[in-house]
Amino acid sequence: MRNIIELTVWQLVPAYIFVVFVIAIVKIRGINREKEILLSSVRMTIQLVLVGYILDYMFKNRNPLYTIIAMTVMEVFAIYNVFSRVKRKISPELKRIIAFSMSFGTIASMLYFILIVIQLRPWYDPQYFIPLGGMIIGNSMTGITLGVERIMDGFDSRKEQIEAALMLGATPGMSAKNVVNNAFDSAILPTINSMVGMGIVFLPGMMTGQILSGTSPLTAIEYQIAIMLGILGSVSLTVILFVMLGYKTFFNDRCQLKDIIS
Amino acid sequence: MTSLYELKDITYKNILNIDNLIIPENKVICIVGESGSGKTTLIKHLNNLISCDAGTIYYKGQNIDEINPIKLRREVVMLPQVPVIFPGSIGNNINIGLTFSGNKPVDDSRLQEVLNIVHLQKGLSDDAGKLSGGEKQRVALARVLLMHPDVLLLDEPSSALDEETEHLVIDSVVKYVRDNNKSLIMVTHTKKIAREYGEGIIIMDKGRVIGKEGIVN
Question: Fewer C-beta neighbours within 10 Å, C or N terminus of chain B?
Fold first, then answer.
């Protein structure tokens, strides 16, 4: 294994030249974005420094409670992120379904992946659990966000079609079938596309990180293949749970379409 | 005369306000009125697609709220004013009503029969999405007829048809209803059609029933 190049803080400083470069471009072009670029760079730095110290502490003091707390924080943050990223107003009922689908889908996938596939011992080892869990939660969050947007768009744009089906005696499930299927398809498509380009168009982040830290590329690809399959499973499980439970919130107990899209 | 529907003190938002209305069974009933008079809202209530804010609707003597809405809609089928075409061929579009109501699709000869009732000379495998407005309207009507419901709620079923085709289609539909002892409640934009075919006429204005012909209360 080759020695890895340890970066010092002083080596990081010249990297900030890229921020100065982007700010210069937007200033010259008259694009009013300097403040956001500066703020996001500062925020990224502070967040990563903090998380670095927290992870360092957790790795040195391995404790199942710390792992559980970290995963809960990530899960809660991901759920709130879904709520804030969707532009439409989400009903409280649909929010509950999002929270349930995200929690159940990601936890079930994580446990299967970490206990059965990776066979992590001890199961709570934060060095593996946190980065792998984070990837599963992050990708599921993106998937479910797309699913929420598509299902709401679908109920809005296909209202006449759904109502026409109800008029003919269709159950809510039958009448919303196309909307539900489209939402699921749109939500898992980015994951499928990223699998297609993997290794050719780009080297994924986890694999790059492992290679940079000195791991053999052959070990790195094994992890990458496993995590991609884990992500596919988690995104699919999370989104199918969401769409299958979520469409019901658009109907009342008389199988009538509610007027809730805004 | 047996009543099919009985409406008592119905209100819905500021759109509908009906004190008392009895709609008889096995008749052709036409609903007429200006645009925005509440005709569509009324028949949506009869299909239980929406529920009134106050009052009670009885269907064959039973409170509509106590009837399974899916079961009711398979017995009382509604055709919307703007025809909805689902992706696929004309044949699939006609058969889809049966699928929605939990029945098996029928073969082409049966589909052709309903196409004849609505006077549409098109191939069953033609793409339904490419039809004209009037043709789509007749495909949607054929879909309802194929389901053989007890009650047909038709919301302006001929609005996109020329006068000659309108007469041919309505003539066939009314004949089908009478031959099969069904009930037809039809919203129509022309009083002429209502006078010609309606055994009873409900005249609406600003959400109220302002006149009834051939209907006793």
Answer: C
Name which of A160, A167, A178 is nearest B78 (Cβ-Cβ).
A167
Domain of A51, in residue numbers: 1-61
Q: How many CB atoms lie within 10 A of CB A24?
A: 11
Q: Which residues pair with B6 in a beta bridge?
A: B22, B58
Tally the domains of chain A: 2
Strand locations in chain A (E): none
Write the residue in A168, A174, A175 that is nearest to B147 by C-beta: A168
The answer as to whether A4 is a domain residue is yes
The model's pTM is 0.88
Residues of B in contact with A165 (CB under 8 A): 100
Residues A228 and A100 in one domain: yes
pLDDT of A251 strictly over 90: yes
Q: Which residues of chain A make contact with B96, given a CB cutoff of 8 A?
A: 168
Write the residue in A161, A166, A178 that is nearest to B49 by C-beta. A166
Task: Judge whether A78 and A134 are in contact, CB under 8 Å.
Answer: no
At residue A214, φ and ψ (nearest 5 deg) are 100, 0
Using left for φ > 0, alpha for ψ between -120 and 50, and beta otherwise, residue B50 falls in beta
Q: Is the pLDDT of residue A43 over 90?
A: yes
Residue-range domains of chain B with CATH: 3-213 (3.40.50.300)
- Does A255 reside within a domain? no
Same-domain pairing of A111 and A221: yes
Is A256 part of a structural domain of the chain?
no
Mark whether A96 and A14 lie in a shared domain.
no
Span B81-105, pLDDT tens digits: 999 999 999 999 999 999 999 999 9
* Interchain CB distance below 8 Å, B100 and A163: no
Residue B206 touches partner A, C-beta closer than 8 Å: no
Q: Which residue of B has its CA nearest to A159?
A: B84
Same domain assignment for residues A175 and A227:
yes
What is the CB neighbour count within 10 angstroms for residue A156? 12
**Could you give the CA distance from residue B57 to residue B55 in angstroms, rounded to a whole number?**
7
How many CB pairs below 8 A link A and B? 61
User: How many angstroms separate the CA atoms of A184 and A161, rounded?
Assistant: 19
A110 and A151 share one domain: yes
* Interface list for B 65-124 with A (CB within 8 A): 65, 69-70, 73-74, 77-80, 82, 84, 86-87, 96-97, 99-102
CB crowding A169-188: b at 16 or more within 10 Å, else e: bbbbebbbebbbebbbebbb
Among B77, B87, B102, the residue with its CB nearest the CB of A167 is: B77
Each residue of A26-51: b (16+ CB within 10 Å) or e?
Answer: eeeeeeeeeeebeeebeeeeeeeeee
| pLDDT at residue number A259 | 79
